[in-house]
């Protein structure tokens, strides 16, 4: 993602910041400097309020980062390397190189995050109540950090997958039921219910109480719902195609068309074979792909005089995959990049197969019906 930039590297783990974090950073500093601090301690210089606002926000930033490091360090101990940590609008994500292999491992890695936040809340809370002078702005700043960490610990254990709480819930069902797919489905369903409940409350707040803050609930609910759905399909891909090569799932009964063919001939091909696309091949060279969509752009009266070469989608690197690539990885990429079809080609350019999203969905469906029990 290029909307993130790298900030630093800690213990070999790259830390990235998503640009949405800058907005949150500003809003948080602003509301502390101009709203909260002047309210709890009166009569200070405006610069002091700003300094306190920015420092407190930085400390919250460090808290979020520490939460993610909590997950990361336990993950590494469990043998799962961390690709990177990204901080974005509502917190952070520690991206693991692989999913935990056992429910116990997932439970430990997940629990480490909220426990870290709780620990910071307890330490800063103790500092505030036992050590710092009351009525000072430093004390109030520490108190804000304590409460934000407490909220972070509590918010994260809401059982809405893929929040930490949802993962704890999933790993528990996974542990007792021994089926990760079913456990995930249950956890995602609960997560969706909670997400829709949050959104409903958001709408009630807006339309009945006239308070625009309800938008946040709708937004958070929607984000969690989306994230839950996508991690479920990711898992389905991984489970269905684990260990398989592209060559095992591609379709090999290739029907190609020549670039010299007219669109009338192409139309006959579509009607006859009922495929959504044809690779355009001349001799041993593959020129690209022609789809029904390409064809629609040309008026019917020009079909007899227009050749396939004029309308084809030229061969691009993103359309080409290798037969020995990992099927799950390729499919995930196709799904996220919204690629409908890919051409399977050998290093030397020889076309050996075609992989379409429709094939892929059919395969998953078949696997789910036949494979789960
Ligand atoms: Zn977490």
Can you put this structure into words, describing what you see?
By secondary structure, the protein is of the alpha+beta class. It folds into two domains: 4-157, no CATH class; 246-371, CBS-domain (Roll), CATH 3.10.580. Helices cover 59% and strands 14% of the residues. The protein is built from 13 helices and ten strands. A hairpin with a 2-residue loop joins β1 and β2 (13-18). The protein binds zinc ion. Zinc ion (ZN) is lined by residues 67, 71, 113, 156, 164.
* Order of helical and strand elements: EEHHEEHHHHHHHEEHHEEHEEH
The amount of beta strand, in percent, is 5-15%
Indicate the mean pLDDT. 86
Structural class by sheet pairing and helices: alpha+beta
Low confidence ranges? none
Topology (elements, then pairings):
Layout (H helix, E strand, L loop, with lengths): L3 E7 L2 E6 L1 H21 L5 H32 L4 E7 L2 E6 L6 H29 L5 H20 L7 H14 L2 H28 L6 H28 L4 H4 L13 H11 L3 E6 L2 E7 H5 L11 H4 L1 E2 L5 E2 L5 H10 L4 E5 L5 E6 H15 L2
Parallel strand pairs: 2-3, 8-9
Antiparallel strand pairs: 1-2, 3-4, 5-6, 6-7, 9-10
The protein binds zinc ion.
Structure keywords:
single chain, 373 residues, alpha+beta, CBS-domain, 2 domains, four-stranded mixed beta sheet, three-stranded antiparallel beta sheet, 13 helices, 10 strands, binds zinc ion
In short:
The chain is α+β, with helices and mostly antiparallel strands.
